[in-house]
Amino acid sequence: MSMHLYCPIEGIGSNIDNHRARYPLYDCCMSQEVLSPRSLRGDELLKAAGHAGVVWAGLFALGIGLGVVVTAHGLPWWLAPLISGVLFAGSVEFILIGMLSAGASVPAIALTTFLVNSRHLFYGLSFPLDRIGSRIGKSYSMFALCDEAYALITALDEQTLNSRRILWTQFGLHLSWVAGATAGGLAGASFLSGLKGLDFVLIAMFLVLTIDTYRSRPDMGGAALAVTAALVALVLAPGAMVLVAMCGYTVTLVARHYLTRVPHARPQASHA
């Protein structure tokens, strides 16, 4: 008489059931290992690294430039990890360093920060925050929302989009930025002041993200509207190009949605 041991995991599918019938003891041991919470967390980290690892590296290089700018303005090196970790606002941090060294007032700094980061208001319209269940996770995701995070996460399909994938992607961006700023601050302007190309990292990164997003979700009309909005904003309001372009782009997208949507057919009333 033979004895079979089965793993008490149900609802996996017919293929898994067939596999259990052939290799019951092996399947039980492997299922406990592969489907453990620790394994799932590590798996999502590896997937996030595979999808966003190149952007993490680019953000690290850009963070080095921030650290160099901090020390070049005569500020202590520890301000680089402090500003990059607490603010995590990218371009605003470069502006903030110049304003701090020039002795700008707090209201001026606050207004500048709001105007530069106002584009994030539009990100919330389509960012999948509802995929994150915990309040702490949602709070961190809102804090760590940046251009790179929005581009990477919104490019994912719905089947692979989950809470851990979103948070690992954002945490990797945050950690890379802080680590790069710390490295640049410690190295100092004396070692890295002559390093060429750091100022082009951000432009190259956004170009790559734009191409990847278009490849995953090709929309020629949306791309044409974005370019048109940017050119119009550059001509009409060069001092506030980002804000004007985002407003114009959002308005045109909403208008296109209402003009091209298919009206729902009303059900016909049945007559006795």
UniProtKB/TrEMBL annotation:
It is a multi-pass membrane protein. Keywords: Cell membrane, Membrane, Transmembrane, Transmembrane helix, Transport. One of its GO terms (cellular component) is plasma membrane. The chain crosses the membrane at residues 48-74, 94-116, 171-191, 226-251. It comes from the Bacteria. GO terms for biological process: L-valine transmembrane transport. It is found in: Cell membrane. InterPro entries: Brnchd-chn_aa_trnsp_permease. Belongs to the AzlC family. This is Branched-chain amino acid transport protein AzlC.
